[in-house]
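Input chain follows. Return structure tokens only.
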Amino acid sequence: MVHSDQGSQFTSREWQTFLRQHNLEPTMSRRGNCHDNAVAESFLQLLKRERIRRRTYPTRDDARRDVFEYIELFYNPKRKHTSNGMQSPVEFETRQLKLNKAGV
């Protein structure tokens, strides 16, 4: 997956052809909304910085496995976030489900 804004360099026929040739999926922010994918962009920045920077994967399957492990074994259950009271995503979701069941 390759995320970009809707700039002409990313909407050009050449860029779209390049993505297809490399089996990459394009995603774009909505027009005029620079904050559209802020959460996803923040996550991807962390993924790159904390996990995949300076690594070379022998195969795509190895890369997929490593990214899956980062997300499911570290990021979701353990990584604390300031935006949700210093809870991990799993802790936050569990708490929200309990509050919803309690009618709060």
